[in-house]
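Supplementary Note 3. Input sequence used for the single-chain structure prediction.
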Amino acid sequence: MSIHHSLWKTEESFRIMKSCLEARPCYVWTEPSIRGHFMVCYMALVLERLIEYKAREAGIKASTNQIEESAGKANVVVVDETKAPVYIKAGTPELFDAIGKLYGMEPLDTYNKKKKCANISV
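The predicted structure, written as discrete structure tokens, is reproduced below.
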């Protein structure tokens, strides 16, 4: 009975892989390629679940879609690629900054030089 009640977690994970992580369609045919594709999808799912878990522990209520959307909206644009390119933060959602903070990442400055961006650690 308990196995049946936890079945929804497995089903939700497959749903996330198919929709959010876009694991399908899969255009691989050889066994090593299929295994590699599955492994990449599985690792992405594990990372997604770890982010959700840590966020939930910190009191941040966000769905898989919200986390993925916020990561997709975090953009940095390179301006003036001559001698000293400048990196301008085009936008980072609050959720992205909050999750980054959980992992020790400081919010990006609005303007950065290449050297400073290379030194950002997580």
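The chain is about 55% helix and 10% strand. The CA atoms of residues 105 and 121 lie 7 Å apart.
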